[in-house]
Every structure is written in structure tokens, then in C-alpha cells.
Write a structure and sequence with these properties.
The structure holds two protein chains of two kinds. Chain A is an alpha/beta fold. Chain A is built from seven helices and four strands. The termini of chain A are far apart. Chain B is globular and about 45 Å long. By secondary structure, chain B is α+β, with helices and mostly antiparallel strands. In chain B, strands 2-6-5 form a three-stranded mixed sheet, sandwiched between helices. The chains are: A alpha/beta, B alpha+beta. Chains A and B meet through helix 1, strand 1, strand 2, helix 3 and strand 3 of A and strand 1, helix 1, strand 2, helix 2 and strand 4 of B. Strand 2 of chain A pairs parallel with strand 1 (about 1-5) of chain B, so a sheet runs across the interface.
């Protein structure tokens, strides 16, 4: 690992470990950051997966790595789910691999529309289906908010 | 609470992370959203312009090398984390600051 990369790792680790704020870290896509241990100071990991096999397989490997890091709470968040049969397929896969499903976020055209307009989806559609599902994620993670 | 959001590229992890950050901030919690992706676009998901996605260069003196009794060394933050968030973060909305970690700009030696 080069020095610049080590600086970024060190700052991220210290930041997450020491800040009094709620921290939400959007990790690098894929698995490399998990094997490097970047995320070891978080208490919760959300693994986002789409309803198709390659995405679920990546999620399963992410779960294994997160367990190895000793992260206390690891949850699957299914995303872009269009049909009941997609939801069933995700829940079956998750059940077989002991991956708790925290939420099923439906496919939502508001996400792409917000992206086109350069606004946050919570501002474009506070009651859009995806936003409602993510509010439920917030409720389940911290039922006694704020805190 | 410290939450990491992982997933395959294209899974929508950035949308989930950004929306969750907005919702927590809306509920009155001070939140830092950290973009650790080498292709940073969490700023866009928070409704910020592309210029907010440009990572600050984090000076090396933010870190101090520590050594434990076994002689194992590691890099630890040498200044309070909340100072780093204030100084290098971008105000995204009330209660929410975005910090883009950035990645080394050169290829091949990371």
C-alpha cells in the first residue's frame, strides 16, 4: 500500500472510530476494501444487493468478510426489487445463507429522475416508494431516534 | 452509530447510503456521510453539485504513527475527528456534512 493510500485508510479509520456523529460510509464497490479492513470500526454494515444471482453472490462474500472483521450487525438490503417473485428469490437466497434481510427497497423511477435533476431523492419525492423503504431502514436501525 | 454500506457496483448502494444520511439528518441527528468510493458520487445523491465531489487533499500530518508493546505500528488520527469533518467536509444540509476521502490519483502503485 502506498503512502497516500495509507493516509486515506488511517484518516477513515480514525474518523469513524472517534467522531461523536452518526457516520454513514459509502464503501468502494466490490470486496477489496473489506479484505483491507477499512470498515472494521463500524458497528453496522448494510450489504446492498439487487435481485439477481451475481449481485447476491457478491453480497454473500461481503457478509463472510464482514463477519471476519467482527462487525456486530450485518444486514442485507435488497434494492431495485420489481416483483413479488424477485422478493421471494432474494429471501430464499438470504435464508439459505443466514443473511438477515433488513429491508426490501422497490424499484423506483424517482431515483433516476432525481439523478437527472441533480437533487436528492428525499427532496424530489419525500414519499416515493424507495424513500419510504429507506425510512423504515432508519426506524429499524435506531428505533429511539434521535440519539 | 457507525454504518458502512457495501455492495456491487450498480447495486444502488450510494443511493441507499445518501438517502439514509438525509433521513437521519432530517430527524435531528448530526451526521457525517463519508464517500470512500474511488469513483465518488455520494455528493450527487445528496443533491450537491459535482464540485462537492472533488476530494480535498488530506495532509499527512492529520495522522500520527503509534506503536504498541509488540512493536506493531499503525496510523492513527492525530487531531480530533470532528475537526477533520468541519475543516474538510462540505455542508450538505442541516445536520449533514459530506466528507470525500478520495483516492491516490496515480495508477499502479496503490
Amino acid at each position: 500500500m502506498c503512502r497516500a493510500h495509507a493516509t486515506v485508510r488511517g484518516v477513515l479509520n480514525g474518523l469513524v472510530a472517534q467522531t461523536g456523529r452518526m457516520a454513514i460510509v459509502d464503501l468502494e464497490a466490490g470486496l477489496e476494501h473489506l479484505s483491507r479492513g477499512t470498515a472494521r470500526h463500524v458497528d453496522t454494515m448494510l450489504v446492498v444487493a439487487e435481485p439477481y444471482f451475481k449481485s447476491l453472490e457478491t453480497a454473500r462474500r461481503s457478509f463472510d468478510l464482514a463477519r471476519d472483521l467482527g462487525i456486530g450487525a450485518i444486514h442485507l438490503v435488497a434494492n431495485k426489487v420489481r416483483t413479488a417473485s424477485e422478493e421471494t428469490a432474494i429471501r430464499d437466497f438470504a435464508g439459505r445463507h443466514a443473511m438477515p434481510v433488513l429491508a426490501v427497497v422497490p424499484w423506483d423511477d424517482a431515483v433516476a429522475e432525481a439523478d437527472r435533476r441533480g437533487v436528492a431523492v428525499v427532496d424530489l419525492g419525500p414519499d416515493a416508494p424507495s424513500v419510504r423503504a429507506i425510512r423504515a431502514v432508519a426506524d429499524r436501525l435506531a428505533p429511539t431516534t434521535p440519539g | 452509530m457507525k454504518i458502512a454500506v457495501a455492495g456491487k457496483g450498480g447495486s444502488g448502494k450510494t443511493t441507499i447510503a445518501g438517502t439514509l444520511a438525509c433521513i437521519a439528518a432530517e430527524r435531528g441527528m448530526p451526521v457525517v456521510a463519508v464517500d470512500d468510493d474511488s469513483n465518488p458520487n455520494l455528493a450527487l445523491t445528496l443533491g450537491l453539485g459535482a464540485e462537492a465531489a472533488t476530494p480535498p487533499s488530506l495532509p499527512r500530518d492529520l495522522l500520527a504513527e503509534r506503536v504498541d508493546e509488540q512493536g506493531k505500528s499503525w496510523l492513527d488520527l492525530a487531531v480530533p475527528a470532528d475537526d477533520v469533518i468541519e475543516r474538510y467536509g462540505v455542508a450538505a444540509r442541516e445536520n449533514l456534512r459530506l466528507l470525500v476521502m478520495g483516492q491516490p490519483q496515480h495508477g499502479g502503485s496503490g
